[in-house]
Amino acid sequence: MSAIETTGLTKYYGDTRGIDDLSFSVAEGEVFGFLGPNGAGKTTTIRTLLGFVAPTGGSATLLGRDVTDEAALVEAKRHVGYLPSNPGLDEGVTGRRLIRYHAALKGDERSDELLERFDPPVEREVGDYSTGNKQKLALVLAFMHDPDLVIMDEPTSGLDPLMQERLYEFIEDERSRGTTFFFSSHVLSEVRKVCDRVGIVRDGRLVAMEDVEELLDRSGKRVRVAVEEALDPADFEIAGVHDLDAGDGDASFMFTGEYDALLDHLREYTVRDLEIEEAPLEDVFMKFYDHAPAERPASSPPTETAASAGGETDV
Ligand SMILES: Nc1ncnc2c1ncn2[C@@H]1O[C@H](COP(=O)(O)OP(=O)(O)OP(=O)(O)O)[C@@H](O)[C@H]1O
Fold it and tell me: How far is the CA of 301 from the centre of ligand 1 (A)?
């Protein structure tokens, strides 16, 4: 069984396209990153998966249960954690009180451990919390019932670098316990760090689905070389050289060829400096953002009228 499965999932808000014809699956135990520029449809996908808005077309299952079937969705959500991008927490109560409330709703398997890990100031009223502290409390609430699948909408927004690192470590630990993650992001470095696979959405459509390691392997390495001699582009007519920028005594390019051939070639020069590094993720992903073909025109009309949105509640 897939943790998440969508088939032709579509959501229009009136005439405005949210997502169109999304089909993908997330395997159990996988950490899946859902990437795309602003307005691409990431939040709409998450809200549709969680039943906060009804799809206009297509279907989706969470942990094998149809998200448009209310009873099935309630059952699925007992095993699902959700971290919204702006957790709308009740501001007039203490963090401790909210934790107790959530414990009564969905159970509490591990709030003590999570509080130790994320350390939000639980004795204070949530209204006095900083954005980062709200996010820490939201993390405790999202994980306290020990969910099998966790859906997170831009989880690191609002966290300082130290807390971001702590969250990445936590995701790693959870992954080794078999928890499945689906999270949206536009922070490319975090995708590199924690995701097994990424789906890239643009203008409401899925434009790529990639294994992160394979994607980086295929993209090759960035090479920078400085030599004593003057250089021109003809000096780098070697198989596997792309995006060449050759200056007077230095050159930089993407390389997908054989290293031996490159090193043999460089031996003809007096090399002053040589750097070979992983392709910058920005370059790798931007081509999907900018050039990937959309399957249909951006303004194609919905086939059915938008269904009414359900109320948004935490799970
Ligand atoms: N409630 C709504 N009513 C009307 N249009 C909406 C609504 N929510 C989203 N949209 C539209 O749907 C499209 C997808 O928006 P969505 O918020 O899902 O994108 P996103 O990828 O999450 O963007 P961001 O990274 O900026 O959060 C956008 O054109 C947006 O304007």
Answer: 16
